[in-house]
Amino acid sequence: MNESKLYCPRGHKEMTIRATEKRVLFRDKQLAVPVEQYVCPECGTEAGTVKQTAVIQKSVADAFRKSAGLLTGKKIVEGRKKLKLSQKDLARKMSVGIASIKRWEGGSIQSKSMDRALRMALSGQNVGDSCTGNRTFAIPRIKLVLKELEALLGKKLLKKNDKMLFAAKYLWYADMITHRETGQSMTGATYAALPLGPQLNNYRDLIEEIMEADTADAEPLNPEEKRVLSRIAMKFPNEQMVYNAAHQEQIRKNRPRGAIIPYTDSADLDAL
Ligand SMILES: [Zn+2]
């Protein structure tokens, strides 16, 4: 590593760079992490630069992923390039935001379920139609559906930093009901069973992309889809109502926390 000179804070001479392995306890796992640090040859005091610290954090994350049987950032990049996929392509294939792919490749740790989805996508398989409701995931369509609902409800659903608590529940009903009645979801989005109800999978990484999406890129809503949205708006004129109904749905309660709610469950919706 090419860094500038560093002197020992205890008044000794110039420190030297040493590559070692450090034992680190991270999320209950003992990890051996390769570390490059400055060391004082006289007293052994260690110091790291900001750049070294960032590299170490990434190494810790990758050591953890290796030990937990998860794909490392490097493996994800390699697998993606082998299939000649861009980060955006892989995001589409997995129904996640491009921000997720960037974070996982950059060193963030993916969940076990996302790791499974990554492995499937990188082995060239489709992540599964029961997760996407037989439709290709399309972010502009999410925005189009929310805009249509906003017009019907006369209120804003898409707000910055609101965690999509209500918007995701309207979307979930739109996707589930359309799937139940037409065999295809409206947006291709994947939903997880969370304690507060069904939630758009990886919504944190999607919100910005949804807000910035251009509805002109979305396939227009057909009359049947528009009718479904009208029914949802009539049934749930306010956000608390959609929240309560979605929260109470048995098909959400039946799934373990964080598990995907497959579209094949749409036949058992209670509220609509
Ligand atoms: Zn020293």
Describe the fold and architecture.
The structure is a single chain. With 272 residues, the chain is an alpha+beta fold. The protein has twelve helices and five strands. It has helices spanning 50-67, 73-82, 87-94, 98-106, 112-122, 129-132, 139-153, 167-182, 203-212, 223-235, 239-248, 250-253, and strands at residues 16-26, 29-39, 46-47, 191-194, 197-200. The protein has a three-stranded antiparallel sheet with strand order 1-2-3. The chain has a two-stranded antiparallel sheet with strand order 4-5. The longest helix has 18 residues, at 50-67. The chain starts with 15 loop residues before the first strand and ends in a 19-residue tail after the last helix. Zinc ion is lined by residues 8, 10, 12, 40, 42-43, 45. Residues 8, 10, 12, 40, 42-43, 45 line the site of zinc ion (ZN).
Q: Secondary structure elements and their pairing?
A:
Blueprint: E1 16-26, E2 29-39, E3 46-47, H1 50-67, H2 73-82, H3 87-94, H4 98-106, H5 112-122, H6 129-132, H7 139-153, H8 167-182, E4 191-194, E5 197-200, H9 203-212, H10 223-235, H11 239-248, H12 250-253
Antiparallel strand pairs: 1-2, 2-3, 4-5
Zinc ion binds next to loops.
